[in-house]
TrEMBL record:
Pfam annotation, one family: HTH_34
Key words of the record: DNA-binding
Protein name: DNA-binding MarR family transcriptional regulator
Residue span, Winged helix DNA-binding domain: 24-99
The keyword DNA-binding is annotated on this UniProt entry: yes
Top-level taxon: Bacteria
Single GO MF annotation: DNA binding
UniProt-listed SUPFAM superfamilies: Winged helix' DNA-binding domain
Keyword DNA-binding: yes
Length: 103
């Protein structure tokens, strides 16, 4: 007798660093953005490591990166897209189901 299949976890989000990025961005209001240096500071990640993981999330359509200028200074802004927010919500639901199955 077999039980229900265990849920799959989104491999794009599941990597620890990308999960941390996604959690931080999901904590923002839907339309809000965060600057790259502030996100880097919050997550205590190197610029190169954060850039690598943001690129993976961007390739999946989960984050949007905007380059802008603020008082002639370049600024990189990051936000979670609606598909990214949906993927994160599905990820957390799958994780709950997975944990409940083990209880």
């Amino acid at each position: 007798m077999t039980g229900p299949a265990l849920p799959e976890l989104d491999p794009v989000i599941h990597a620890q660093a990308r999960l941390r990025v996604t959690v931080a961005l999901a904590g923002l209001h839907r339309a809000d953005q965060i600057t790259f240096p502030r996100l880097q500071q919050l997550l205590d990640m190197t610029a190169g490591n954060l850039s690598t993981h943001l690129r993976k999330l961007e390739d999946a359509g989960y984050v949007e990166i905007t380059k802008a200028y603020e008082h002639r200074t370049p600024v990189t802004l990051v936000r979670l897209t609606e598909p990214g927010r949906t993927a994160f919500e599905q990820y957390t639901e799958a994780l709950h189901r997975l944990l409940d199955a083990g209880a």
